[in-house]
Amino acid sequence: MTARPNIWRWRRCGWIRPFPQDGSGDKVAHEVHQSIQRALSEIRALSRGLAAPDIEALDLEDAIVLAASDRSVPGTHAPELSISGDVTPALSYAEKLCVFRFVQEALSNAARHAKGAKCTVTCASSPDELSVTVADDGPGFDPSDAIKLGTEGGQGLLGLRDRVESTGGRFEIKTAPGAGTTIKMTLFHRQARPR
Asked: Where is the Histidine kinase domain positioned along the sequence (predicted)?
């Protein structure tokens, strides 16, 4: 036997209210519908972001372009991309995924915390290292607050740093209140890794 909700009791307690009969209910229903549609759009975008694309088949430039386009947020400027050097360095899948997620997360942070700021993504590859830099001209922040768990539960810059360092790379942040933010990752090619 399944328990059935006691609608009468819920209504008496104020948990359920009757639908307004003065015509305002249509407006409320429309607002609720719009809120649900926005929430569904956000959930779908998050779900797409959780699945890693097939970056194994992509070269470095295509992976960066995909990551940057994936994080283009309506109402924000599309990031400027600059890629120099060898775009086909010998990267492991983990390193290529690290670059992809680094660009995604750094641009996502810029969209969240530096709304309307101009962003640039710069990638430079040399025989010894690969560096990827994401910079914005937003409000910046106090760097001593940079590597902490977010109050909303996100890992943000802490997660970025851990991801880069887990591949043997170096993670750097340059920022100050009113001075924009530059986040840089450097991966060292296997023969050039610092000891």
From this structure: 101-191
